[in-house]
């Protein structure tokens, strides 16, 4: 890790009723770092993001953000503290233009480097479509708008859920091409992915989940795709 952790989960269990989705999960993301959490369907990735953003509360263990225990802190307070979630499925406003959608993200924003221009610099495809309504955007443009909207709040930690879901490979590459510009502004990123290739290409570290448990944690540069694939499918 580059620095002391901005986000740290220790020994986190999460249940849906009687069903346990996460088992004693430890995870840390340093300020400025990009962590990719990977795993197959049902591995617990979305549950992890819900636990970080406060939509689910751990039944055991702790979530610390910026040095504070936020395990019991409400979602809106975590947002104010600098945690932004771009949910799976995007959810932008179809009747509003790209630019209006981005401005919604600036409501109550923290001070920081993200402006409309900075978002357009990171995502040139949005600059060209700034007056287009959300409902007329392609899936990739909607995804970029959703990420841009989250950035407009100047988050310290950007959580990205399944960026590549349902998008064509060329569009996925466009979205991921923006990540260096995002981290260059000091924004810490935790990305949840099923796509191993993308995860390994963009992340400093990868953590692989299988049925709610960590089965691999490694620096992206030091691990082979085969090792990650074996952990992912539980054949390692
Ligand atoms: P996906 O890629 O399909 O989103 P995931 O890795 O994000 O998968 P989760 O959605 O976190 O996985 O689900 C982890 C486990 O928890 C799965 O077994 C799932 O069936 C279960 N689960 C998720 N949401 C609920 C819920 N609301 N009630 C009961 N079980 C749930």
UniProtKB/TrEMBL annotation:
It holds the Pfam family ABC_tran. Keywords: Amino-acid transport, ATP-binding, Nucleotide-binding, Transport. PROSITE patterns: ABC_TRANSPORTER_2 (PS50893). CDD domains: ABC_TM1139_LivF_branched. Belongs to the ABC transporter superfamily. The keyword Signal does not apply. Residues 7-236 form the ABC transporter domain. It comes from Nocardioides eburneus. This is ABC transporter ATP-binding protein. InterPro entries: AAA+_ATPase, ABC_transporter-like_ATP-bd, BCAA_Transport_ATP-bd_LivF, P-loop_NTPase. GO terms for molecular function: ATP binding. The keyword Cytoplasm does not apply.
């Amino acid at each position: 890790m580059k620095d002391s952790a901005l986000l740290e989960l220790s020994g986190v269990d999460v249940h849906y009723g009687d069903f346990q989705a996460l088992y004693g999960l430890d995870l840390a993301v340093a300020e400025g770092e990009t962590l990719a959490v990977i795993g197959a369907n049902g591995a617990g990735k979305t549950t992890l993001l819900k636990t970080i953003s406060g939509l689910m509360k751990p039944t055991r263990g702790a979530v610390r953000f910026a040095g504070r225990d936020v395990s019991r802190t409400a979602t809106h307070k975590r947002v104010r503290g600098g945690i932004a979630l771009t949910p799976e499925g995007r959810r932008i406003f179809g009747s509003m233009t790209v630019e209006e959608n981005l401005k919604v993200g600036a409501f109550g924003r923290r001070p920081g480097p993200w402006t409309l221009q900075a978002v357009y610099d990171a995502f040139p495809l949005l600059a060209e479509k700034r007056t287009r309504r959300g409902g007329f955007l392609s899936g990739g443009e909607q995804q970029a708008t959703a990420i841009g909207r989250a950035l407009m709040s100047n988050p310290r930690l950007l959580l990205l859920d399944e960026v590549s879901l349902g998008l064509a490979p060329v569009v996925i590459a466009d979205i991921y091409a923006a990540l260096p510009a995002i981290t260059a502004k000091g924004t810490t990123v935790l990305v949840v992915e099923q796509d191993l290739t993308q995860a390994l290409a963009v992340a400093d570290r990868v953590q692989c989940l299988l049925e709610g448990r960590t089965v691999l944690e490694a620096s992206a540069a030091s691990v082979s795709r085969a090792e990650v694939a074996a952990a992912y499918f539980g054949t390692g």
